[in-house]
């Protein structure tokens, strides 16, 4: 016999087939929908208390060709309320339960859309021109307000979770704008400019202090923390490669995270940003987005151009591992969602049903999925409802 043939790298389709075969072991629920156009954004809306918990809504957008109009859309999904035996799952395609219930027309592609925490009927968007639009889902299909401050494509958009009506935007033109959507004026109430007008990749409000927000930009690959009281940066972190996203913890006022081109996920303490608290490796491509869990302390989720979403359990940092486990991953890497076949554009954690996630990718696909309640970190808390894989 000749020398043993080197192990062949699986194709994307083969990886997807392998992932699908492991779905019954790794998930309580998976749903996949092919959209007409890809969505660059997704965000769960708060659950309507008048509706069953199994009925959930989300915001998505479109990125169409130049000849087609774009829309920001309200989509709903009906979750099953009975467990299906995962050992009796067939190879049939996963059913789609996502349907569009309302849409608002825009000219350019929607790069990001976010709702206002204090009134989820108010939805903001930023588009390929950097135009920020405000919609009221109970009003007309046209924007109730439009801000045309930015002159370039933008991905930064964040409503203040504490101060009602305060909205931040950031764009590739290197500018940051803050709006008061309750005011009559359609001009920003405050603006900031990055050095050399460098691209700003993300912007987020702090969850405990209404005056703090953070940005990540390609200005010397910098993460910056701003304070409205000083109208300037209060701290900044420079990296060798750009950050693409940042997130503030919803459980600790000092903890925040950032990640980007170098594929690692970093943890920081606001009280001392001169050094990294911890760095986590697991992605094989630039990180595209970060989000801390709403209701479970110590859980951080990241997505990447490597087609993966990783759930990190920060409580496991420093835990001892047997040699075999240590070779596979760091102890804080809780789960890898490998169901996407192209770069992950955005994802969102559901605030009503812990561990339920919606994620979108470049190839027109949106997935809704929940990690298995058999996983140790999840099994410690009782699920709100019982549901399993849809065929």
UniProtKB/TrEMBL annotation:
> Might you name a Gene Ontology BP term for this protein?
subtelomeric heterochromatin formation
Which intervals hold domain Histone-binding protein RBBP4-like N-terminal?
14-81
Compartment(s) where it occurs, according to its Swiss-Prot or TrEMBL record: Nucleus
- Could you tell me the superkingdom of the organism this chain comes from? Eukaryota
Q: Which SUPFAM superfamilies match?
A: WD40 repeat-like
- Leader sequence range is none
Q: Which GO terms describe its cellular component?
A: chromosome, telomeric region; cytoplasm; histone acetyltransferase complex; nucleus
Provide the GO MF annotations for this entry. Answer: histone acetyltransferase activity; histone binding
Provide the alphabetized UniProt keywords: Chromatin regulator, Nucleus, Repeat, WD repeat
Q: This protein is called what?
A: Histone-binding protein RBBP4-like N-terminal domain-containing protein
Q: What is the originating organism of this protein?
A: Kazachstania africana (strain ATCC 22294 / BCRC 22015 / CBS 2517 / CECT 1963 / NBRC 1671 / NRRL Y-8276)
Give me the gene this protein comes from. KAFR0L00320
């Amino acid at each position: 016999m000749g020398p043993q043939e080197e192990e062949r790298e699986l194709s994307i389709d083969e990886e997807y087939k392998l992932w699908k075969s492991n779905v019954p072991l790794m998930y309580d629920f998976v749903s996949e929908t092919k959209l007409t156009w890809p969505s660059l954004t997704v965000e769960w809306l708060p659950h309507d208390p008048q509706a069953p918990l199994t009925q959930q809504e989300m915001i998505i957008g479109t990125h169409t060709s130049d000849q087609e109009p774009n829309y920001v859309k309200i989509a709903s999904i009906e979750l099953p309320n009975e467990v299906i035996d995962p050992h009796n799952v067939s190879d049939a395609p996963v059913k789609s339960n996502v349907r569009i219930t309302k849409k608002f027309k825009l000219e350019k592609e929607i790069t990001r859309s976010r709702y206002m925490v204090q009134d989820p009927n108010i939805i903001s968007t930023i588009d390929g021109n950097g135009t920020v639009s405000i919609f009221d889902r109970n009003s007309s299909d046209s924007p109730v307000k439009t801000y045309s401050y930015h002159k370039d494509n933008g991905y930064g958009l964040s409503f203040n979770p504490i101060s009602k009506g305060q909205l931040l935007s950031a764009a590739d033109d290197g500018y940051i704008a803050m709006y008061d959507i309750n005011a009559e004026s359609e001009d920003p109430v405050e603006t900031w400019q990055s050095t050399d007008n460098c691209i700003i990749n993300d912007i987020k409000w702090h969850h405990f202090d209404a005056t703090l927000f953070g940005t990540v930009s390609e200005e010397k690959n910098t993460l910056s923390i701003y304070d409205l009281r000083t109208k300037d940066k209060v701290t900044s972190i420079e990296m060798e490669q750009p950050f693409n996203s940042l997130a503030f913890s919803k459980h600790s006022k000092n903890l925040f995270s950032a990640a980007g081109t170098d594929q690692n996920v970093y943890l920081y303490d606001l009280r001392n940003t001169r050094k990294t608290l911890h760095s986590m490796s697991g992605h094989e491509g630039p990180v595209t987005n970060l989000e801390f869990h709403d209701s479970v302390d110590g859980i951080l989720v990241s997505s990447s151009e490597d087609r993966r979403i990783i759930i990190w359990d920060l409580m496991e940092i420093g835990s001892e591992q047997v040699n075999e486990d240590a070779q596979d991953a760091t102890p804080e890497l809780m789960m890898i969602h490998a169901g996407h076949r192209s770069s992950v554009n955005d994802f969102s954690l559901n605030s009503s049903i812990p561990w339920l996630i919606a994620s979108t990718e470049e190839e027109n696909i949106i997935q809704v999925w929940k990690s298995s309640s058999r996983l140790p970190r999840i099994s410690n808390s009782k699920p709100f409802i019982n549901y399993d894989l849809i065929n």
